[in-house]
Specification:
The structure is a homodimer of 254-residue chains. With 254 residues, the first copy, chain A, is an alpha/beta fold. Chain A has two domains: 157 residues, 3-Layer(aba) Sandwich (Molybdenum Cofactor Biosythetic Enzyme, Chain A); 75 residues, Alpha-Beta Plaits (2-Layer Sandwich). Chain A is 39% helix and 24% strand. Chain A has nine helices and eleven strands. A six-stranded mixed beta sheet of chain A has the order 2-1-3-8-7-6, with helices on both faces. In chain A, β10 and β11 form a beta hairpin. In chain A, α2 runs parallel beside α7 and α8 packs antiparallel against α9. The relative contact order of chain A is 0.13. Chains A and B meet through α1, α2, β2, α6 and α7 of A and α1, α2, β2, α6 and α7 of B.
Chain lengths: 254, 254
């Protein structure tokens, strides 16, 4: 990972490609994983889209997202079957040619006999001109990086290996730091006080998240503070802690 | 649910609103649930987007999606805290006014004393002009439906109750039917045969999905056929079954 200045912001989007996610047949496991991973290395995930296996939809989404963010990560649609159209769609979006890439053929030949390298398997070797391959230790078929677009497999295990490999080559920015507080009060009781802290610190974003405790106790609320500046984060967190304590004293809640 | 002609297509998009999903802090559980639910009632989910708690992002996504699909479902951002800006953003996108809705106030007063109905809690009663409320039995605060946009909570348990209530009022189309086959062969072996069946049936979409079997056996592949026409689905499924059997005989695979 390259060294970067503390204040630098590096952004990303994810494009999930696949009818199976939209039909509900497959439950996506990649968005949450990539979100955690990028947060951990200092890349800010700003948008996610899920589109079907339709070339025009993929091309339009790739172009909208790659132009807007530092990086675009795609998942899905790079296998050997007719519905795997991601590589061709990305080439079309970028305006580059695509064909069978000898580097990818060599990778497949480490696992397959040459006589088994049929037309379908060669489809997995179709790589846009000018792309770098993104390898993985689980399957022979590579993903690729072209410009700021990183194309990865949809199978979580393979995607995760590709992500770990490719992130090493990317720019990263200042890491987002966070603090989580258990509110111990209803959101409606502390919302005003929380907004005041939020307004005081321009470089801290504060969210309040209710969740239903299925093991009893009904709703619990967590307050999450996020900032790239440790001093601001600490100060805002102290303000929220004090606000909650004052409010509990006032309401007679322990 | 209204009766509809067999061939009718009703489409939808989902817009997930929330920094906590993009940061990885919260793993979305709503997309997969809504996808399954809509597929089950005959509404075709065509696109999903996840955006942060930023008004301009929400407004732009709401307008892009509501204009393109029969329905747009949003999740998240309708609580009492400062980061809950969905209702105001949807009102802005639709070009309508927004204010405290007396119907929503009445709902909250079934759970709260009037003296506890502070400014923050009244925020949950801000409903765009002309919207219908979408109630739920778990929390008092309602979602709403305005035009073709349905605004729901982010907490899965509440969202699910709102979805069940609102779907009763929506148009639905012909249900997508599906058949799933265990391939028992590598994708690269059957890709050509599968593409031929796919081309033969214009009204059947066929996908091939590898998944890694963590309990051993490596990758397994499933073939999923989807159509709204039962006869086409049955014919295409029979063709794929025969194609796989012929291939296994040819390759000497049992």
């Amino acid at each position: 990972m390259s060294e970067t200045a503390t204040a630098k912001t590096v952004t990303a989007a994810i494009l999930v490609i696949g009818d199976e996610i939209l039909s509900g047949r497959t439950k996506d496991q990649n968005i949450g994983f990539i979100a955690d991973y990028l947060t951990g290395v200092g890349i800010d995930l700003k948008e996610v889209r899920i589109v079907p296996d339709i070339e025009e939809e993929i091309v339009n989404a790739v172009n909208a997202l790659r132009r807007r963010y530092t990086y675009l990560f795609t998942t899905g649609g790079i296998g050997p079957t007719h519905d795997d159209i991601t590589a061709d769609s990305v080439a079309k979006a970028m305006g580059v040619s695509i064909g069978v890439d000898e580097r990818a053929v060599e990778l497949l030949l480490t696992r397959l006999k040459r006589e088994d390298l049929n037309e379908a398997r060669l489809r997995m070797c179709r790589i846009p001109a000018g792309a770098d391959l993104v390898t993985n230790p689980i399957s022979a078929a590579p993903g690729f990086k072209i410009g700021n677009v990183i194309v990865m497999a949809g199978v979580p295990r393979i995607m995760q290996a590709m992500l770990a490999n490719v992130v090493e080559t990317l720019e990263t920015g200042a890491k987002m730091l966070s603090e989580t507080l258990e509110a111990g009060l209803p959101e409606g009781a502390y919302a005003k006080g929380l907004e005041e802290v939020d307004k005081k610190y321009g470089d801290v974003s504060i969210g309040s998240y209710p969740h239903f405790n299925t093991s009893g106790g009904g709703f619990k609320n967590q307050i999450v503070l996020r900032s790239k500046d440790p001093a601001s984060l600490a100060a805002a967190t102290a303000d929220v802690v004090k606000m909650l304590a004052d409010l509990k004293a006032q309401l007679g809640v322990s």
